[in-house]
């Protein structure tokens, strides 16, 4: 049927297919081992799946708000961060952290409000901010260790800054913001009277006794922070869409009202199963970072070590070992002139392994160039590898990469 | 190994800056809609009895000494009010709830089993953003069966978290701030809310009893080349009206003449009793400008699964998918697999569904008439609106409160479905999506205690 292209804006008409989309199609055609997607290829924990099945059988299938989720989330926040959360007023259940973030953005951002984000970062934040009429302002984290430069941070604020977005543990770098960095962020928020929206989906995945600290636990931050998180990464159920926002009552109420108008309810049986998930004993959370007798060991720390060793051995520059989440942001070998997109294309075609070109996480814009004293040309030198994959997958990837090594033992893509 | 490449965020990278620039009008400044207080969706808040949101919303401004941080201006009018109070009242008085728009019986076993199997089979990770391929196919197949239209499941079907999200994604994806959108009142309350979020200028045309016919002359004067879209809900919540072929033809020609988009909410299409359901998209010249919205929940009594979809030509689907990717990113995976099974149910399922609901409808309608309500004919949905004025209460809210406290039955005051609440003060909505025992018990209570 006839396409009404004249209805599209001129910008939309000028957009051609994204190179990253092409790569994902290529990966599919080549049957590549997928170290790109940010979700596990091993099963979700049985005790949680059983709870979902039981809920479906017990007729928990109509619109629902499961207050128990709010209760447990409040308990966990109190235990982990000493936060005082009123489960009746301060928690909004949403369809995943994605919707919690979208609703939070709509709840606080008006047209023209500026929102500070750290670069590199997950793509979706910008889309939500713009949808709400906001203006994203990026502060580059400094490679190789993705440290926060307080001067750059402070310079990014203006009279129009409404909020700061903080994702920690961080996608794509695996950085866990330090206490000092969080204090800098908190200090500026307090001084400028700004809000903060945090994405803490990887809150339970940290390594080497690194602890995730919630920004809201800093003095003066509880009343100005919206915490968003979900079941997805902690319980390996990214497809269930159960998440939440925690905020001061008047903001949580706004988020709840928006959520009701946007989706009405998170999937009912999975809300029920969430109760079982959130009640998991300490041993379950331990199994996220190390071997367990009781649970299938997701043991992300070992997987991290495996992939760091593997990629370092074959020539990637790993300046920064992930401290949390399940991504490794590796720099392309020094002598390799390829861009990240070209490198990944060859990786797919020749090694049969796919990862994500890092350029998708960088947002070079005028604010960044202004702030960045160093040149910003590292933005096409990074590739993100996901290690939330089974032993078999990781070993298969190692084997395939191993077949392409040169005499020096380095990955040699033609 | 099956690869499921789901990088919608990266796929959208180059597109994100072009969000919502579809417009035949120039960009205007955000104009705030003068919305009156609107309520939490009636079908949900009944279960939110422990959420004391209305108190917070009302007292939020005076709560603490430091209140530097304001919620967005768009939300100033959004509060949970009447309905939350009603549901709390209902629980307190042990009232039989014919207000909530969802069943008190469960969905069919074969669909539930499919969901369970999907969980067991490990389908618990992110689905492709715009839908599990098999579900997109099943939706396209169903649409062809229902309307004769052939659509491309990959380019023209988008799966969302319920029809509510499909509506939100359509509004946010295709409506620019300042665009004019026409609604028919009474309307499902998420329309107004999401239009307000999109910054639209809302024009409302009221459908009036006894037959809630579309006032074509009024529509002719309201619609112009400045109109961006018109929203149609058929079969219609709350009145049960179904738009006739004549009405749809008239609306269609006005839309073609003025280059207006149409968004149709057809979630009750399988509960069409008195006439056949007609999809606007199937009318000549209309597919290219129509977004057809639907869901699993009402047809399969699984309202909490949140599986919905939008069917539209590629250039409109693109906008819907953009917004959807930022609103929820992906829809519940196991439920999508089960939904594909559901949509392929044999004709007998749909016939039995209608038969069941017709029997329930008769119990309720006969009962309401016997009690003394003026019952307006409802052609579809599982709702019926009645005029309550013979019972002497001043308005719909007062009547509903009385009905809960003195009679022990819940109905919904329809004023919440109008831009001007005055337009709904004589009408209340009952639902018959309840098992027969519940319906009979409610009718008995009303016969006993409700006096003219």
From TrEMBL, chain B:
<dbReference type="GO" id="GO:0016212">
    <property type="term" value="F:kynurenine-oxoglutarate transaminase activity"/>
</dbReference>
<dbReference type="InterPro" id="IPR004839">
    <property type="entry name" value="Aminotransferase_I/II_large"/>
</dbReference>
<dbReference type="InterPro" id="IPR015422">
    <property type="entry name" value="PyrdxlP-dep_Trfase_small"/>
</dbReference>
<protein>
    <submittedName>
        <fullName>Putative pyridoxal phosphate-dependent transferase</fullName>
    </submittedName>
</protein>
<keyword id="KW-0032">Aminotransferase</keyword>
<keyword id="KW-0808">Transferase</keyword>
<dbReference type="InterPro" id="IPR015421">
    <property type="entry name" value="PyrdxlP-dep_Trfase_major"/>
</dbReference>
<dbReference type="InterPro" id="IPR015424">
    <property type="entry name" value="PyrdxlP-dep_Trfase"/>
</dbReference>
<dbReference type="InterPro" id="IPR051326">
    <property type="entry name" value="Kynurenine-oxoglutarate_AT"/>
</dbReference>
<keyword id="KW-0663">Pyridoxal phosphate</keyword>
<dbReference type="GO" id="GO:0030170">
    <property type="term" value="F:pyridoxal phosphate binding"/>
</dbReference>
<dbReference type="GO" id="GO:0005737">
    <property type="term" value="C:cytoplasm"/>
</dbReference>
<dbReference type="Pfam" id="PF00155">
    <property type="entry name" value="Aminotran_1_2"/>
</dbReference>
<feature type="domain" description="Aminotransferase class I/classII large">
    <location>
        <begin position="96"/>
        <end position="445"/>
    </location>
</feature>
């Amino acid at each position: 049927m006839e396409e009404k292209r004249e209805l599209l804006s001129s910008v939309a008409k000028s957009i051609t297919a994204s190179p990253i989309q092409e790569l994902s199609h290529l990966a599919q055609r080549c049957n590549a081992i997928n170290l790109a997607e940010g979700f596990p290829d091993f099963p979700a924990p049985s005790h949680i799946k059983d709870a979902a099945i039981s809920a479906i059988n017990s007729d928990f299938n109509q619109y629902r708000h499961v207050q128990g989720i709010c209760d447990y989330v409040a308990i966990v926040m109190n235990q982990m961060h000493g936060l005082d959360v009123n489960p009746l007023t301060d928690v909004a259940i949403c369809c995943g952290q994605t919707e919690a973030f979208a609703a939070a953005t709509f709840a606080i951002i008006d047209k023209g409000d500026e929102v500070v984000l750290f670069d590199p970062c997950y793509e979706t934040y910008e889309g939500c901010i713009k949808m709400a009429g906001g203006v994203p302002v990026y502060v580059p984290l400094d490679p190789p260790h993705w440290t926060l430069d307080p001067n750059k941070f402070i310079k990014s604020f203006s009279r129009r800054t409404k909020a700061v977005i903080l994702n920690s543990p961080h996608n794509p770098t695996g950085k866990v913001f330090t206490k000092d960095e969080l204090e800098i962020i908190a200090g500026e928020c307090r001084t400028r009277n700004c809000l903060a929206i945090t994405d803490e989906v990887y809150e339970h995945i940290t390594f080497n006794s690194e602890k995730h600290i919630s920004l809201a636990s800093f003095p003066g931050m509880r009343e100005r922070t919206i915490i968003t998180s979900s079941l997805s990464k902690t319980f390996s159920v990214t497809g269930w869409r159960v998440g939440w926002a925690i905020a001061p009552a008047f903001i949580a109420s706004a988020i709840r009202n928006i959520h009701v108008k946007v989706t009405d309810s998170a999937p009912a049986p999975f809300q029920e199963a969430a109760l079982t998930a959130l009640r998991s004993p300490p041993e379950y959370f331990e199994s996220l970072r190390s071997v367990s007798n009781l649970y299938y060991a997701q043991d992300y720390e070992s997987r991290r070590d495996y992939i760091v060793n593997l990629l370092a051995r074959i020539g990637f520059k790993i300046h920064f070992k992930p401290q949390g989440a399940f991504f490794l942001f590796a720099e392309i070998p020094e002598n390799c002139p390829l861009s990240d997109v070209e490198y990944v294309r060859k990786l797919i075609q020749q090694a049969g392994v796919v990862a994500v070109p890092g350029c998708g996480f960088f947002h070079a814009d005028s604010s960044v160039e202004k702030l960045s004293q160093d040149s910003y040309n590292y933005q096409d030198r990074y590739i993100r590898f996901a290690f939330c994959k089974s032993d078999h997958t990781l070993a298969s990837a190692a084997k395939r990469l191993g077949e392409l090594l040169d005499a020096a033992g380095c990955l040699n893509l033609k | 190994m099956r690869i499921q490449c789901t990088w919608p965020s990266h796929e959208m990278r180059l597109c994100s800056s072009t969000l919502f620039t579809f417009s035949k009008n120039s960009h205007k400044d955000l104009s705030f809609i003068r919305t009156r207080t609107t309520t939490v969706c009636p079908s949900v808040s009944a279960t939110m009895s422990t959420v004391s949101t209305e108190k917070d919303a009302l007292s939020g401004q005076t709560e603490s000494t430091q209140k530097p941080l304001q919620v967005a201006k768009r939300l100033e009018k959004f509060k949970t009010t009447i309905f939350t109070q009603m549901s709390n009242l209902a629980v307190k008085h042990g009232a039989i709830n014919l207000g909530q728009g969802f069943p008190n019986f469960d969905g069919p076993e074969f669909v539930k089993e499919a969901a369970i199997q999907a969980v067991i089979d490990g389908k618990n990770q992110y689905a492709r953003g715009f839908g599990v391929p098999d579900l997109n196919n099943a939706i396209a197949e169903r649409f062809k069966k229902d309307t004769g239209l052939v659509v491309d499941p990959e380019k023209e079907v988008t799966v969302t978290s319920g029809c509510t999200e499909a509506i939100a994604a359509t509004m946010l994806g295709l409506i620019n701030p300042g665009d004019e959108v026409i609604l028919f009142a009474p309307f499902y309350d998420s329309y107004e809310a999401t239009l307000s979020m999109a910054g639209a200028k809302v024009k409302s045309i009221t459908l009036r009893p006894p037959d809630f016919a579309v006032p074509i002359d009024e529509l002719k004067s309201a619609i112009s080349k400045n109109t961006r879209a018109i929203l149609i809900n058929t079969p219609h919540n709350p009145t049960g009206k179904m738009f006739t072929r004549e009405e749809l033809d008239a609306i269609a020609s006005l839309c073609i003449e003025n280059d207006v988009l149409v968004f149709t909410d057809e979630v009750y299409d399988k509960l069409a009793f008195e006439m056949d359901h007609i999809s606007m998209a199937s009318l000549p010249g209309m597919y290219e400008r129509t977004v057809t919205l639907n869901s699993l929940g009402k047809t399969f009594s699984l309202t909490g699964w949140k599986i919905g979809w939008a069917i539209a030509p590629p250039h409109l689907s693109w906008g819907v998918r953009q917004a959807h990717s930022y609103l929820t990113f992906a829809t519940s995976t196991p439920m999508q697999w089960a939904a594909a099974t559901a949509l392929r149910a044999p004709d007998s399922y749909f016939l039995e569904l209608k038969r069941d609901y017709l029997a329930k409808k008769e119990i309720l309608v006969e009962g309401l008439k016997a009690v003394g309500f003026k019952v307006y004919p409802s052609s579809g949905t599982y709702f019926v609106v009645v005029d309550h004025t013979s019972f002497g209460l001043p308005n719909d809210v007062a009547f509903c409160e009385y009905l809960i406290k003195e009679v022990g039955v819940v109905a919904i005051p329809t004023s919440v479905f109008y831009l001007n609440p005055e337009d709904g003060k004589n009408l209340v909505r009952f639902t018959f999506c309840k098992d027969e025992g519940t319906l009979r018990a409610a009718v008995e209570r009303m016969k006993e205690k409700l006096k003219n």
